[in-house]
Amino acid sequence: MAAGDDPPLVRAVGLTLAFGDEVIQRALSFDVRRGEVLAIVGASGCGKSTLLRHLIGLQTPAAGQVLYGEHDLHSCDDEVLATLRRRFGVMFQSGALWSSMTLGENVMLPLRLFTPLNPDQRRQRARWKLALVGLDDAFDLEPSELSGGMRKRAAIARALALDPELLYLDEPSSGLDPFSAARLDRLILNLRRHLGTTVVMVSHSIDSVFAVADRLLFLDDLEKTMTALDAPQTLAAHGPARVREFLHRGAPA
Amino acid sequence: MIDRPAPAIAPAIASAIAPELISWQRADQGWTLRLTGDWRKGATLPTLVNPEPLPPAGSSVRVDAQGLTGWDTETAAHLWALLAPLHHGGVQLDFDRLPEALRAPLTLALPVQSVGAEALPAEPTPPGPVDHLRAWLQDALTTAAFLGEVALSIGRLLRGKAVMRGSDYVRQLDHCGPMSLPIVSLTCFLIGLMLAYMGGAQLQRIGAQSFIADVVTVGVVRELAGLMTGVILAGRIGAAFAAQLATMQSNEEIDALRALGIDPIDYLVLPRLLAMLTVAPLLIAYAALVGVLAGLPPVVGIYGVPAWEYLHKCMSALNWTHLWIGLFKGTMYIVLVALAGCREGLHAGRNAQAVGEATTTAVVKALLWIVVAASASTILFQSLGL
Questions:
Q1: Is A118 left (phi over 0), alpha (psi -120 to 50) or beta?
Q2: Higher model confidence: residue A128 or residue B30?
Q3: Which of A73, A81, A83, A92 to mutate to test the interface with B (most CBs of B within 10 A)?
């Protein structure tokens, strides 16, 4: 873990998420600390994935800012935006591998577009990234030939292509069998330990949250705002009633 | 008397038919619903009605089945239909005196309302004409924005800043061009054949068979080759574009591009649009050639015009104006097909159903745009005297 006085990697300030007039979440303010695993949790439809889409700039907030350093992701100019985007990688819920390309090509595309590497170097780098997630043999496979867990790991390899300091993961363990889910949890922890990658993950797998998360951000679907941000164990014991109920799988705590 | 239709059964009559099965009784703090007799399949069940007016919210209704001698799963369903309105009206239902086999499913279907229960989304009001108009306007705005983005993207391409994979362009080129040849050949051959055959039948009446060549050449080169190729590509390529992009959309692949800062218009739309633009004039020229040659068999075989005369007349009927107008219009149709396909695919919803919708809409829109463009360009060229 990094020192606490490090400036935060990302700061959300008074973020309001809305579709048209319908407010999903409001007044979200939190920091992402360097080196931590932050889990965003909440009931289905509470706006977890929507928050993620705001943090990576796919959707514009109705109010508030997403600050990377001193730059607001949603109001900076294109050149700054391009450099900010290099600082994070994203794994989407279904993996979102480009289906018309092999895994190797998936990982190599960002390298080709955003690095000066030559084709041999790109190939070598892509193999390395795939090896990090345990898929070094799958370089020439198409996404459709993979299982769900392999697809998600390949998507992480692609997200790692440009050596980002921050990884956003959308539901890394959803739809996976316990073995694959545990393997993915270990992968997240190993990335953090060995590469120092900060991870922000959306999850509703409580097992996975307890296994990997340093802090947990709870989005309440009734209050329509965040009601807790602390270590999962602390929240399970002393958090607000609804958070405790969530962490105890719906049993009133 | 017997033939007269039975009146709707009023509560009083219902209880008169089978008084022994069900009855409402006032109790101290509400009502008691008393069930008696045999409710099994085959029994004539009374029409179940609630007391009028309904018991107010907060009052209680006890269901008493002590006199019930027989029941089956249907019984619970009947009771549920009767009691659900009361439950939704906030009446406390007391199932304590029901047999376990009835109490369990009823308690499951009519749970005690708890705070924070899931609220179902409100039933949407059916869209009115204003909503349709708004949806149409929204759609038109999206299309306009899309066209603007494509224009910007073309600008980036010309400045060498667009992110486009050459291999994508080549793959699309192959898909749009050579692979379209068989169906374009077949369609345009039949069109030319029919035009010559039908045109010949009319011209023969005034002994002007030898002018069939003019009809076929001008008709095919100037209008039909482009139109038919456009229509075929709308089904073959426009639909494919929409399906590919909509699938990528529902699979978050387009989001993955955007998150990297890759413009999906540059990366996905440009290669498709350029490939269509490249193959369009070639395909249309080919289609026109096939159409004109297809006039030969009927002209020679049925109307007795020598082949060399038909071909010679074709050549003299053909001039540069017809040729470039035909190529221009056809290319315009094909570009519209590509734009409609990409527009629908890129703005599709995020589920599997949306892929189908995008595909259908892309074809319909492409055909509509083609017809509008055909009319507009015909009027334009006519007024220019070309």
A1: beta
A2: A128
A3: A92
